[in-house]
Write a structure and sequence with these properties.
- By secondary structure, this protein is an alpha/beta fold.
- It has a six-stranded mixed beta sheet with strand order 7-6-3-4-5-8, with helices on both faces.
- Strand 4 and strand 5 form a beta hairpin.
- It has helices spanning about 1-15, 20-30, 45-60, 100-105, 110-115, 140-150, 150-155, 170-180, 180-190, 200-210, 215-240, 245-275, 325-345, 355-365, 375-385, 400-415, 425-445, and strands at about 65, 130, 285-295, 300-305, 315-320, 350-355, 390-395, 415-420.
- Helix content is about 50%, strand content about 10%.
- Bound molecules: zinc ion.
- Zinc ion binds near residues 168 and 180.
- This is RNase H type-1 domain-containing protein.
- InterPro entries: RNase_H-like_dom_plant (IPR044730), RNase_H-like_EbsB-rel (IPR052929), RNaseH-like_sf (IPR012337), RNaseH_domain (IPR002156), RNaseH_sf (IPR036397).
- It comes from Gossypium hirsutum (Upland cotton).
């Protein structure tokens, strides 16, 4: 209804300014010998012309000739009586001269009053088409909309049909539920419509359908209504034809893009969360292990860093492996060495964290496979028995950084064994940053 009122804007402009460009183009093509209000739709109307013709009926009821010299007005056919009612004269007799008595003899009392209320302009002023529902005489979408939605709706008997299916009347029930085009789109998108009694209204059925829908279907419902509304406007204002195939493609593409963005966001926030080191629960000690390996000297240094639930370092060890040929073997050795270290520290509940996914996977699997590190893994399994509880977790590089730095420092200072006097400043600093990052991340989730 709103955009028909807007279309009315165009009809208004064309009829009130017959010399404007669009008015002249339309006149040349569709109504050379008449005016816009009496022109026929014709056999090959453009979309613009067709919608102008349908809006014309709406606006025609609000058009009024403001009497000037009377030259343009046919007093028997044209609307020129001011006031809200019918603006045309309902009289059969044609009289040659207008006098007060004459007016009273051909029209009823009320019409006569309306005629005499017309402010007379000078002889030279031209007759002008005005919009009677607005004091300014200018057509406004708002005033037409107001006219349509108040009691005038009944008196004007305007049927505003849905521009999509051209069957139903264009109201919210229709546009959000019963429109055939919308239902077709939903069927194509496999939207499940729950069975409810026929008695319930469209709004109820919409709410039921929406709340019962899965996440993806909810997306489809919202996007389809929004894009149909967008297409209607494009159709009305730009004359762009609706292609259902293209519309379905658009809806699916949009939904896909939306889901992709959501997944990427989730993924990055999840991996962000994983990127930081987290302290274990109270009573549990977390051991981060890592290794450095230089193929030039065939030396590998493993590191194990034990921290409690407050993130404090409670022990550290580096260990030197000589004659190593395989980096992967070193990772398994680092895990094995960390368990030996934990045993020596007398720990009971452990979380073992390393950044070699293969090692973590193999120790979790505990089965006989053809891994070259299988003997080491089997030894790890054996070592586990001395603890009450051991959990293995994969840590991304950044979350395991403190253990990595410890291994590098061990190589740099050639220090192997327990770090009884405490770790180097670099490791301390990293451990402190781990704690800070964890604090920050737990605050930001609130
Ligand atoms: Zn419809």
């Amino acid at each position: 209804m709103r955009y028909l009122s807007m279309r009315g804007n165009e009809v208004w402009r064309i009829s009130s300014q017959p010399n404007c460009f669009s008015a002249r183009v339309l006149k040349a093509r569709y109504y050379i010998f008449t005016d816009i209000l009496s022109a026929k739709v014709g056999s090959y109307p453009s979309f613009t012309w067709r919608s102008i013709c349908s809006a014309r009926e709406l606006i025609a009821d609000g058009l009024l000739w403001r009497v000037g010299n009377g030259a343009s007005i046919n007093i028997w056919d044209d609307p020129w009586l001011p006031g809200r009612g019918n603006s045309r004269v309902l009289a059969q007799k044609i009289m040659p001269n207008w006098t007060t008595e004459l007016v009273h003899t051909i029209v009823d009392e009320a019409t006569a009053t309306r005629i005499f209320s017309i402010p007379l302009a000078g002889c030279n002023s031209e007759d002008l088409l005005v919009w009677k529902f607005e004091g300014s005489g200018e057509y406004t979408v708002k005033s037409k909309y107001r006219v349509l939605t108040t009691e005038n709706l009944q008196t004007l008997r305007i049927e505003v049909t849905c521009p999509l299916c051209k069957v139903g009347s264009e109201d919210s029930d229709h546009l959000m539920w019963s429109c055939g085009i919308l239902q077709y789109v939903w069927a194509a998108l496999k939207i499940t419509i729950p069975l409810v009694g026929n008695l319930s209204c469209c709004k109820d059925r919409f709410v039921k359908t929406f709340s019962a829908a899965e996440e993806q279907q909810k997306h489809f419902i919202v996007i389809s209504i929004w894009s149909l509304w967008y297409r209607i406007n494009k159709m009305i204002h730009k004359g762009v034809k609706l292609s259902l195939q293209e519309l379905l493609g658009f809806i699916k593409g949009y939904e896909h893009e939306l889901r992709f963005i959501q997944e990427t966001n989730n993924l990055s926030s999840r991996s962000m969360a994983k990127e930081i080191w987290r302290p274990p629960k109270t009573g549990v000690i977390k051991i981060n292990f890592d290794a450095t390996f230089k193929s030039s000297d065939k030396c590998a240094i493993t590191a194990a860093l034990a921290r409690n639930s407050s993130g404090d370092i409670i022990g550290a060890e580096t260990y030197l492996f000589e004659d190593v040929v395989d980096a992967f073997m070193v990772e398994a050795r680092a895990c094995e060495r960390a368990l030996i270290f934990a045993g020596m520290m007398g720990l009971r509940h452990l979380i073992m964290e390393g950044n070699s996914l293969t090692v973590i996977k193999s120790v979790k699997k505990q089965e006989n496979d053809k891994l070259i590190v299988r003997p080491i893994i089997n030894h790890i399994t054996l070592l586990e028995t001395q603890f009450d509880n051991v959990t293995y977790r994969f840590a991304p590089r950044l979350a395991n950084e403190a253990a990595h730095i410890l291994a590098i420092e061990g190589r740099r200072f050639q220090r192997f064994g327990f770090w009884v006097e405490g770790v180097t400043d670099a490791v301390k600093e990293k451990a402190m940053n781990d704690r800070l990052d964890w604090f920050q991340s737990s605050y930001s989730t609130f």
